[in-house]
Design brief:
With 289 residues, the protein is of the alpha/beta class. Helix content is 30%, strand content 21%. It has 9 helices and 13 strands.
Length: 289
C-alpha cells in the first residue's frame, strides 16, 4: 500500500511538472520559435550608474519571469569578462561567475527554457566560452541542433524540457560551431531592429542587423531599451522613463508595427530595467496568455 501510494504521488508530481512550461501549460506545445520572450538587455550590469542597464540581478530577473538574458563580454587577461563596452567602465565579473549563477537557477527550475545571447566583440577564442560552460556545468543543459533550423524546425518547449536541453545559446559575432556547436550564430537565426534607440528612432520595427537580411525564415528581436544621448554618439540608459518604456502601451506600440510589417510579433522584446513597468504582463499578452 505504501509503495503504491508513493508511486501515485510521484505520478501526480510528474504530471504537474509536465503540465507547465515556462509557467504556462499553453506554452508546452508551442515551438521555441513561436513564443515571445521579454529579454533583459545587458543583464549582468546592475546598479544605478550610467553604464548599468538593470536594477536587479540575473537571478532576480529569472525569478521575475525573464527567460532571455543578453550580456556583453570583453577580453580581460586573455579571458572573457562580463564588461560593458570596457572593463574599466563596467566590470561585473567573470563569465564563469555569471554562468554559475544561471546554472544554479536552472538546476532549481526544471520546467523552464531560457536563452542566453552573448556578445563577443573582441573575438575571444570561442573555446574559452565552451570551457566556461563546461566548468560551471551549464553545458549539460545546452540545446544543440542537428543542423540549421528553420522557423518550423524548432522543438516545442515540452520537448526541450523532456530532453533536458533547455538552455539555448546565441552569440552575435566570432562564434565557431565547428568548435563549440551549441553556441549558435545569432544572425544565422535572427534579425534585430536598431539597437541603442533614442526617442528619435524608438518606435519602429525596421531590420537593422544583419545587413540586407529578409524577415522570412528568421526569428527577430525588437530593441525596446530607451537611451539618452548626453553627447554626440554617447548614449546612456534612461532609468527615469523605465516604467513608461516598459509599459504595455509603449511596448505594443512597437510590436503592432512589427505585426504590420512582418505578420507576427517579435520573438524577443529586449528591455532595460525589466523590474519596472509591465514586463511580464506584456510578455503574457503577446503570447496570448
Amino acid at each position: 500500500m505504501r509503495f503504491s501510494l508513493a508511486l501515485s504521488t510521484l505520478a501526480l508530481v510528474a504530471g504537474s511538472l509536465a503540465a507547465n512550461c515556462n509557467g504556462h501549460a499553453e506554452l508546452c506545445n508551442r515551438r521555441y520559435s513561436n513564443i515571445t520572450f521579454a529579454g533583459a538587455h545587458n543583464s549582468p550590469f546592475v546598479g544605478i550608474g550610467p553604464s548599468d542597464n538593470q536594477f536587479t540581478s540575473p537571478t532576480d530577473q529569472l525569478k521575475q519571469g525573464i527567460r532571455f538574458l543578453q550580456a556583453q563580454t570583453q577580453e580581460k587577461d586573455g579571458e572573457p569578462e562580463m564588461c560593458h563596452t570596457s572593463c574599466i567602465l563596467e566590470d561585473a565579473g567573470t563569465l564563469q561567475s555569471y554562468l554559475s549563477e544561471i546554472k544554479s537557477w536552472v538546476d532549481a527550475n526544471p520546467n523552464e527554457v531560457i536563452t542566453l545571447l552573448i556578445t563577443n566583440p573582441d573575438a575571444i577564442d570561442i573555446n574559452k566560452y565552451g570551457d566556461a560552460f563546461k566548468s560551471t556545468g551549464l553545458a549539460t543543459y545546452v540545446f544543440t541542433p542537428d543542423g540549421q533550423l528553420g522557423l518550423n524546425d524548432w522543438p516545442t518547449l515540452a520537448e526541450m524540457i523532456s530532453s533536458g536541453t533547455r538552455v539555448v545559446v546565441f552569440m552575435d559575432y566570432n562564434m565557431d560551431t565547428s568548435k563549440v556547436p551549441y553556441i549558435l550564430d545569432e544572425f544565422g537565426y535572427w534579425f534585430e531592429t536598431p539597437f541603442s534607440p533614442t526617442k528619435d528612432n524608438f518606435i519602429q520595427c525596421n531590420i537593422d542587423r544583419p545587413a540586407g537580411a529578409k524577415a522570412d525564415g528568421r526569428m527577430f528581436l525588437a530593441n525596446h531599451n530607451l537611451n539618452i544621448e548626453i553627447l554626440p554618439d554617447i548614449l546612456i540608459p534612461d532609468p527615469l522613463q523605465a516604467a513608461k518604456t516598459n509599459s504595455i502601451a509603449s511596448i505594443t506600440s512597437q510590436t503592432n508595427i512589427c505585426v504590420k510589417n512582418y505578420g507576427r510579433n517579435p520573438n524577443v522584446v529586449l528591455l532595460d530595467f525589466v523590474s519596472r513597468g509591465d514586463t511580464i504582463k506584456v510578455q503574457n499578452q503577446l503570447n496570448g496568455l
